[in-house]
Write a structure and sequence with these properties.
Elements (H helix, E strand, L loop, with lengths): L13 H19 L6 H8 L3 H7 L3 H11 L1 H12 L5 H15 L8 H4 L3 H8 L2 H13 L12 H20 L8 H12 L13
Helix pairs in contact: 1-2, 1-4, 5-9, 6-10, 6-11, 9-10
Length: about 210
């Protein structure tokens, strides 16, 4: 593994090298904004050559995706706090979509790919197994009775997370005209997702 530069402190592993490039990119974006951040700026911030950056991240969108992923935990914590105020699985599902629609484009790091016009990269990140696993973790952490609506296994939670995230992505990238209000969106999602998340009474013997 080649370590040119690194301000005299070469990383010990490939993962550390990637992390330090991502940290350098984050510092550049925080200081100058995305429009004024280039691979050369990131390389200089990390203390390496452009060729070293290319070795780990062939394109700027690859770095932006890594920066977004690095900031996803803070977003997950905010979403969990928001969803904790809702009392049923259906409400949690509906509000998770609305929260994402309002929050993701304005997130300082999650919205970078959208700001850069990299919709395909953004879509790939949102629909990755890692994103579905994160969504499942957020849903599982909410204080509602998921078992009562038949959502009990990791597969159940990941499936529900995938449906909700794909729904969010569709609303975000292909908005309706005229734009619906929040109440309109809530009613739409509740109408078609809600019935799948109602309490299931045990079947009694005849």
């Amino acid at each position: 593994m080649g370590y040119h530069g690194w301000q005299g402190n070469p990383p010990r592993t490939e993962d550390e090298a990637r992390r330090r490039i991502v940290e350098a990119a984050t510092a550049c974006i925080d200081r100058a904004g995305l429009a004024r951040t280039s691979l050369s700026d990131i390389a200089a911030e990390a203390g390496v050559t452009r060729q070293t950056v290319y070795r780990y991240f062939p394109r700027l969108p690859d770095i932006l995706a890594a920066v977004a992923i690095a900031g996803v935990e803070a977003f997950a914590e905010r979403m969990q706090r928001h969803l904790a105020s809702f009392g049923s699985p259906a409400e949690v599902a509906v509000e998770s979509v609305l929260f994402s629609l309002h929050t993701v484009p304005r997130e300082p790091y999650l919205g970078l790919l959208l700001e850069a016009g990299e919709a395909d990269v953004f879509t790939g990140a949102v629909t990755s197994p890692q994103s579905f696993a994160l969504g499942a973790r957020i849903l599982r952490a909410t204080p509602v009775d998921w078992a009562a609506v038949g959502v009990t296994t990791d597969h159940d939670f990941q499936g529900l997370a995938e449906i909700l995230m794909r729904l969010f992505l569709s609303f975000l990238q292909h908005p309706s005209t005229p734009a619906p209000t929040d109440d309109d969106l809530r009613a739409l999602v509740r109408r078609w997702i809600g019935p799948a998340l109602v309490s299931r009474e045990p079947v009694r013997g005849r």
